[in-house]
Each structure stands twice: as C-alpha cells, then as structure tokens.
Design a protein that fits this description.
binds serine, 11 helices, single chain, 317 residues, three-stranded mixed sheet, Rossmann fold, alpha/beta, 17% strand, seven-stranded parallel sheet
C-alpha cells in the first residue's frame, strides 16, 4: 500500500484508522473522505481530505486518479438499527455504494478493504463458535448488505482479479468518535455513562452475548489483512475475527470492579434485542489466525481500564 483512500473517514472506525494509516504510510499518502466533510476536524484534517458520497462513482474515480490510489478502505454504511429504519438508504449505501467501489477498483486496479460484520449472520447460523464458512441468512437490511458485499468481493476477486479483502467485525468499542445506530453501541455508551453519571439504562437483556472488540485491535486487523501475504490466503472477504464475548451483566461487573457505585437497569429495545438475538455469541476466528496471523491484544479487563481512564481524563473526572 502506498496511496490509500478511506471512505467514511469521519465515522467511528475511519477517524482512528486514518491516523494509524498515516503513521504507517505517511500523512500525504492517506486521503480521508466523507459524505459530511464538515465532520473532518482536528488532527484528521491535518492530512489530505475530500468530500465524497460513496454512491458517486464519478467523483470516486476522479479522486483515485488524482491521488494515484492503490488501496481503498470503504467504511461507508448505516449501522444495524438505523438501517432497519431506513432500509432503502442502507441498501444504496451499503451495497450499491460498494458495487461502485469494486467497479472503480477493477478499472483503476486498486485493492479494496470491506468491513463485514457479525451482522452478516442470522438466526439459523450456529451461534456458539460460529464457523468461518457457515449459514448466512441475516434478516436485517444491514446483514443483507454485508453478506452481499462479501460475496461480491469474492466474485470480483475470482472473476476480475480485484484484490478485495475484509473481516467480519464484532461490535467495536472506542472512545474517539461515537458509533451511531448500532446494536452493539450499548457497550460504548455504558462506559461514558459510568464515568459521567454512574448510571446506565441497558437496551439489551441480560444473557445477550455478543462478540466485541476494542478499537486498537480492529485497526490492527484492518491493516494486517491488507498487508497479508496473498499466497497464504484461502479466504479473502469476511474473515471472522474475535477477541472477547460478553453479555450486559459481564461488562457491568467489569465496570463495577472499578466504579463500585455504578448502577445499571434494563429497558429493552425490541428492535435491537431481535437483531442481537440473531447474531452469534462468539465467532471462531481460527481461519484468520492461520491464514494471516490474526491475534488480538486486548481483553475485557485491559479495555475497561483504558476506556475508563481515557474518558475520565477527557472529562476531567
Ligand atoms: N456494530 C454494528 C452494529 O451494531 C455491528 O457490526 O450495527
């Protein structure tokens, strides 16, 4: 990778990925683009940035030529709960947008990273130790776009030789840019509320286990998969990657160990609960480990220490 273009750079993952890519490949070699350029602020705006709607293939092609891009990270998407409220828009951005990215990559000879998700699975998927290759019949629009884009990436790889790669991200926990409208967002909000008010209303039931990951591991995965030796890859798109799995009670207990007065009550949101119930409890990520050496560095305890310390410092608490 020499010249990288990131689509959706102001979002939860993009805002941190761009900074790490710039550290590795040079500030001027990583172009941050977003549909809402006014959100590209602070240190993110210190390198090259452009306005880009992923659905606008003409502008994408222009930018790829202008900056001699060889790798595109497409992070544009509506998260799962918001995609249920706006399914048509979720399809246009999540799938049609990605089709345009793959077509541009085919014409301009770029590699492509695509972030699939635990959302690409459904009720009929085995939920414990979910295998790499298994049933994927999601019943959310978010999941339909994710599984379709995985298949499209594999198709472009085989048919046209486009170097399309990707992972299935768990819920991502971070403290720079908030996620919006996802089912796993509760595991981010809980830390902010614990520090700010000491109280949290949980939208998912106790016992709802989901795969989760701390942002530094997610960034590491997104970079390492693109740097992996192609000769060792048997899969290309949609690698299961896993680092921790917990339910609301387990994360609450981890926080209470550090903030004993922290209180949590439940007010279950049915749409989010139904989505979470259709997703795996924990994925088996042995293919990622074997094919490109995936290994997470953070667990629930180390992440909880870091989240609470970072949020406290930022809020002067
Ligand atoms: N974090 C996403 C969501 O909850 C899942 O990939 O929508």
């Amino acid at each position: 990778m020499k010249n990288v273009l990131v689509i959706g750079c102001a979002g939860q993952i993009g805002s941190e990925l761009v900074l790490e890519l710039r550290r590795r490949y040079g500030v001027n070699n990583v172009i941050g683009t977003d549909i809402a350029p006014e959100k590209i602020k602070g240190i993110l705006a210190e390198g090259p940035t452009e306005a880009l709607d992923v659905r606008d293939r003409a502008t994408l092609t222009e930018l790829v030529k202008k900056y001699k891009i060889d790798t595109i990270y497409n992070l544009a998407a509506l998260l799962s709960a918001v995609a249920e409220a706006k399914p048509q828009l979720a399809w246009e951005i999540g799938l049609m947008g990605h089709y345009g990215v793959l077509e541009t990559a085919r014409e301009q000879k770029c590699a492509v990273f695509f972030p699939s998700s635990i959302g690409s699975f459904g009720l009929t998927t085995p939920h414990k130790n979910t295998p790499q290759d298994t049933i994927q019949r999601p019943n959310t629009m978010y999941g339909v776009t994710k599984v379709s884009a995985e298949l499209l990436g594999d198709y472009y790889n085989k048919k046209f030789g486009v170097d399309s790669r990707g992972v299935r991200f768990p819920g991502i926990i971070s403290n720079v840019t908030l996620p919006g409208g996802g089912t796993t967002d509760y595991a981010v909000e809980i830390y902010y509320k614990a520090v700010e008010t000491g109280k949290f209303v949980c939208p998912l039931k106790a016992g709802t286990f989901l795969d989760m990951m701390y942002m530094p591991d997610a960034i590491k995965a997104a970079i390492e998969i693109m740097e992996a030796d192609p000769a060792k890859l048997k899969h290309h798109n949609g690698f299961n990657i896993s680092s921790m799995s917990f339910d609301p009670e387990i994360i609450k207990n981890a926080i209470q160990k550090r903030i004993p007065e922290f209180e949590m009550v439940y007010d279950v949101e049915p749409i989010k609960q139904a989505i979470a119930d259709s997703w795996p409890d924990r994925m088996d990520d042995s293919c990622a480990r074997e094919e490109w050496g995936w290994k997470p560095s953070w667990d629930l305890d180390s992440m909880t220490d870091d989240m609470i310390n970072t949020i406290r410092k930022r809020m002067n608490k």
